[in-house]
Amino acid sequence: EAQVTQNPRYLITVTGKKLTVTCSQNMNHEYMSWYRQDPGLGLRQIYYSMNVEVTDKGDVPEGYKVSRKEKRNFPLILESPSPNQTSLYFCASSFTGPYSYNEQFFGPGTRLTVL
Amino acid sequence: KNQVEQSPQSLIILEGKNCTLQCNYTVSPFSNLRWYKQDTGRGPVSLTIMTFSENTKSNGRYTATLDADTKQSSLHITASQLSDSASYICVLLTGRDSGYALNFGKGTSLLVTP
User: Fold this and answer.
1) Separation between Cα atoms, residue A93 and residue B77, nearest integer Å
2) Distance between CA atoms of B77 and A46, rounded to whole angstroms?
3) Would the CB atoms of B43 and A98 count as touching at under 8 Å?
4) Which of A92, B70, B74, B84 has the highest CB neighbour count under 10 A?
5) Is B16 exposed, middle or buried, given 0-12, 13-18 or 19+ CB atoms closer than 10 A?
6) B49:A101 CB<8 A
7) CA-nearest residue of chain A to B50?
8) What average pLDDT does range A86-105 have in this prediction?
9) Which residue of A has its CA nearest to B42?
10) What is the predicted pLDDT for the residue at B97?
């Protein structure tokens, strides 16, 4: 089944403890992206990747890192999480970037709480 | 100030009725406009994608329209079903110096009741 998977789905952690949220897609998509969704603010893009080894900042990249060593994987790294990073995170992918007509597929989301 | 405003913020309709959701934008020019459906606790699902030159795009009971003169897009849902209960999000893609920007609306929460 074609899909975007994220792990973990739920995570409660403490301030400063490094964590990684994994994202994987099995559709051979070139473009992958991370978003966070907060009440009253909607979806905001954190980072995106147009292809392997190519990553760029979105609107809210502070406090996050990403890497794209393989086409299928795009992990989101929080080196030193803080409470303001408590949010619902979504990974998404599409064949090419958003300028194209290609549909973007979203993962199921990761709910992160930083105490 | 958000450049993509959606209205209403929330809406309750009876099953079987039609409804229209609005998306007003100030960003210009833009490359494409997308509507997504997001069920509670799940990732958004793409409904329609339109370029700035298109006027309408349908996907089953969902029809999106675009009026570039008034800078408005609408999502019309025909013969609503209980499963249409969700949040509907409008997104515009614009260019910027460092690449592109995704301009998200905050969504309209739709509840379809029996």
Assistant:
1) 26
2) 31
3) no
4) A92
5) exposed
6) yes
7) A101
8) 89
9) A108
10) 63
